[in-house]
Write a structure and sequence with these properties.
CATH topology of the largest domain: Alpha-Beta Plaits
Number of domains: 2
Largest sheet: 6 strands, antiparallel
Helix content: 25-40%
Protein name: Family of uncharacterized function (DUF695)
CATH class of the largest domain: Alpha Beta
Pfam family, one: DUF695
Number of strands: 11
Distance between the termini: 44 Å
InterPro entries: CHP01619, DUF695, RraB-like_sf, RraB_dom
Oligomer: single chain
Strand content: 25-35%
CATH architecture of the largest domain: 2-Layer Sandwich
């Protein structure tokens, strides 16, 4: 099974954290692997509790040394790790029978605080390691801002951006638009499709676009992303994210 790694930033108990999780097990987790084994791997941290670029590379080398020792165990699934306050927590799933051998390998490799617990429904993986839709969009926002900076864009000015959504039911869409229009936010326009259009294979939905003018150097864009993610869910919709208006976007279904 090919690994599909998702990296994202979030907060854990008020502290900044960096997560990396293998999404290839979302639909194909091994139900016989009912035990989760975890250990700690310290790293040299900056003031925010996370490693610098050079220290992160050093951490990855140390992590690879450990995971390479476990590759010989066929029934062990390496699912991810998270970094916070100078310590990485690393997670594997395995069968109960393989637990003892896996823990022995980790302890022999001088891994710290090795422990195991039963987790037959993979709660740690699904409820803790897997990013929420909001965390994914916050990470995507940081990546978009980074791309704009790399292109030499000056973010300390007003940008027109488009936020996109879709709704399966027209009533949900209309109630969402009415709610957004009532908020004390400076949105320039609210647009929507008159009919459902294809959004996925065998799925049609109503499209919505909200236009906003915002200074991308400030935190307004992050506040708006959080507002739209939470509000769209309340009205049974899906928030797809945002992009600057000068990027390519198919608008033929929007009026």
């Amino acid at each position: 099974m090919a690994a599909q790694w998702q990296h994202y930033r979030t907060n854990v108990n008020g502290n900044e954290a960096l997560f990396s999780v293998n999404l290839s097990y979302v639909d194909e987790q091994r139900m016989d692997a009912s035990t989760v084994v975890q250990f700690e791997l310290p790293f040299e941290a900056e003031s925010d509790g996370l490693p610098s670029e050079s220290n992160f590379k050093r951490f990855i080398r140390d992590l690879i040394k450990v995971t390479s020792l476990i590759n010989s165990l066929d029934k062990v699934s390496y699912v991810g790790y998270w970094l916070c306050n100078g310590v990485a927590q690393v997670y594997f799933y395995c069968t109960y029978e393989d637990k003892t051998e896996l823990m022995a390998i980790l302890e022999h490799a001088n891994c710290q605080k090795v422990k195991a617990q039963l987790d037959p429904t993979w709660d740690i993986y699904f409820d803790f390691l897997i990013p929420s839709p909001l965390e994914i969009k916050m990470t995507a926002t940081e990546e978009m801002l980074s791309i704009l900076r790399q292109r030499g864009e000056e973010l300390d000015k007003a940008y027109k951006v488009d936020h996109r959504f879709y709704f399966y039911q027209e009533q949900d869409m209309q109630e969402f638009l009415e709610y957004v229009a009532e908020q004390d936010k400076d949105f320039l326009s609210l647009q929507h499709s008159n009919m459902p259009v294809p959004v996925r294979e065998n799925e049609n939905a109503y499209l919505v676009k909200v236009e906003q003018e915002v200074n991308l150097e400030e935190n307004i864009i992050f506040d708006t992303v959080e507002f739209f993610e939470q509000t769209s869910q309340e009205f049974q919709g899906r928030y797809l994210g945002w992009r600057p208006q000068n990027s390519v976007m198919d608008e033929k279904y929007l009026n």
